[in-house]
Amino acid sequence: MIHSPQKKFFFISTTGTAVFIGTLYFIENYCRNGNYRCSSVYEILWMFSMIFVPMFVCGVFVFFQKEEIFFSWRKFTFGYLLFYAFVLIVSPWQADAYIPISKETMSFLFTGIYAIASIIFVFTKACKLKGK
User: Fold this and answer.
1) DSSP alpha helices (H): ranges in 5-102?
2) Residue 17 near residue 53, CB atoms below 8 Å
3) 72 secondary structure, DSSP code
4) Residue 107 belongs to what H/E stretch?
5) What is the dihedral of CA 52, 118, 112, 58, to 10 degrees?
6) 59-74 tens-digit pLDDT
7) How many CB atoms lie within 10 A of CB 54?
8) How far, in Å, CA of 123 to CA of 108, rounded?
9) How far is it, in rounded angstroms, from Cα 132 to Cα 126?
10) Mean per-residue pLDDT for 8-26?
11) Distance between CA atoms of 35 and 50, rounded to whole angstroms?
């Protein structure tokens, strides 16, 4: 049984990263090769699980920091996850001439923004705590 919040969060991010890698593997090896008929469920699953990769990487770094940094970063991450999910839900499936964005573009864009913002957030929080 996992008891500490850091370990639970690390477990969730590891599981999400595994789902992302698994869906990518499935899509690449079965759907694109024509061996299996795939639906849009797999596409949306990898788009939603993409955010767990930078969450896992940042989680490894934050795991060894002070608890105050972890809890602040966790609040930031949960808020960002809600925003990320909302953006993916309202984004169109395909880009067109009037709206040049799609779910795939938004998932890449906002995953990159999360990774950069998360690193900046943890670094500034650590610097503030070090200054105290």
Assistant:
1) 5-26, 40-49, 52-63, 67-90
2) yes
3) H
4) helix 103-131
5) -40
6) 888 877 788 888 888 8
7) 21
8) 23
9) 10
10) 79
11) 24
